[in-house]
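Lab notebook: predicted structure, single chain.

Context: the supervisor wants predicted structures on file for every construct in the current expression panel, including those that have not yet been purified. This is the next one on the list. No modifications to the sequence; it matches the entry in the shared construct table.
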Amino acid sequence: MEKDTNMNTQKSSGFQEDLEYLRHTPLLRRLDYECLKLLAMVSRRIEFTAGDQVFVQGEDDGYAYFIIAGQLQAYYIKDGNNQLIRTYEPGQFIGSLALLGKMPRIFTLQAPDNAETLRLGRDEFQKAVEQFPSSFLKIISCLTTELLTWDRILLEDKGFQIDKDFHALGISLL
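Prediction complete. Output recorded below exactly as produced.
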């Protein structure tokens, strides 16, 4: 079961760590320092134990997660079968598009063992970013860079076959 590990008076070192985590996430890295500080203040540390579901396929929970410790695994559920898609490690930021708008989950994300995350909610994110008008353009710039990088990585993948896997490309064409 998920557990909120924030206390009413968050320690300064915890705040600084959270600020650093957010500062190094691709979607947020170009934001003004003051905006990042506000995002760190409204973020919450959440712990998960083995088997906990972070989010569920088809639901729109409105959260993004920075993995502090442990791993999280993404599963695609089809016809009652769970297919492991990917394992996420500490330092990765998952679900950032949910911060920008309604985003039903394509996968179920689950903790195989104990994990600690920094959770940022859509409502808190949008309220914070509204206070810094230049933030939206900076976020779009970061998002564009990430989408282009994604297509390039797919093209350079040694196992990628243009004739078979080409349908996976084109995210940068949106």
